[in-house]
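Running co-folding for iron/sulfur cluster.
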Amino acid sequence: MDHPLSHTKPENFSKEQLAYFNQQLESWETSKILEWAIQLFASKIMISTSFGAESAVLLHLVTQIDPNIPVLFTDTGFHFPETLLHLNDLQKRLNLNLRILKPTLNTQDFLNQYGKLYETKPDQCCAMNKVEPFQTALQDYDAWITGVRRDQSHTRQKLVFVEIISNPNGWLTKICPLLNWNSKMLWDYAKKFDLPYHPLWSRGYLSIGCSPDCCTRPAQLGQDPRSGRWANKDKTECGIHTLPLSAQKE
Ligand code: SF4
C-alpha cells in the first residue's frame, strides 16, 4: 500500500492521524480498503453479517480477497426463516467460513424466563441476544469489517471508514468499506455477479433484523431503508454499532 500510514495499525494512530487517514480513505476504491485491512490484520480480521437484504455484496467483495476470512453471524433465535435460507444459499455459493454466535439462553428458555422482551424492553433483548454474544467473540480479533452505509439512515450519516473501539483485549479496529455505497451501486454489483438478495427484500423489507413485527417491518414509503426497524420506537440500532462514547478511544 502506498500511503505512509497504511503500514501502521490504526490503534497506534494519534487522533489527528486517524482523522487524516479517514479523509484519505474517502477516495480509496472499496477493494483497496479491503486489501489494506486484510493484509494488515491477516488472521486477526473478520467480517460480520446479518444475512440481511444486500449482505451478499460485501461478502462477495471480501471473499474474493480472502476466501477463508471468518464470517460472524449472531443467531439471536428470532430470525426470519427466510434469513436462514438466505444464509444457507450464500454459504454454498461463496463457501463461507461461517462462525455462528449464540446467546447464553436458547430461545425457548429466554421466552420462558423473559417473555416477549422485544415488545417491552427491546434494548435489553438486543443486549442479551445480539450484543453480548458478539462482544464476546470480538475478543478473538483485532479488526472487524462491517457493511454499514451512510445512506441507510440519518443516524449513520456521520460514520467514518475506520474507528477504534474498545475490546476486552485492548483495541479493535472497525472498518466500514461500504460507507459511500448506495442502493443502486449494490444492485448493479449484485446483478453483475449474479448474487441473490434476501427473499424478503422484494416485499419491501429493505433492512432486515429479527422477525417480530416490532423489530422489522417493510420500510416506510419515502423514509430511509432502516425505517422499518423498531418502527414507532426511539430505538434505531441493536447496539453493536453504538458502543458508548466512553468506550471509544480518545
Ligand atoms: S432485534 Fe428484536 S428480537 Fe432481535 S434481539 Fe433485538 S429486540 Fe430482540
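Result summary
Helices lie at 15-25, 30-41, 55-65, 81-94, 107-114, 117-120, 122-138, 183-192.
The longest strand covers residues 162-167.
Job closed.
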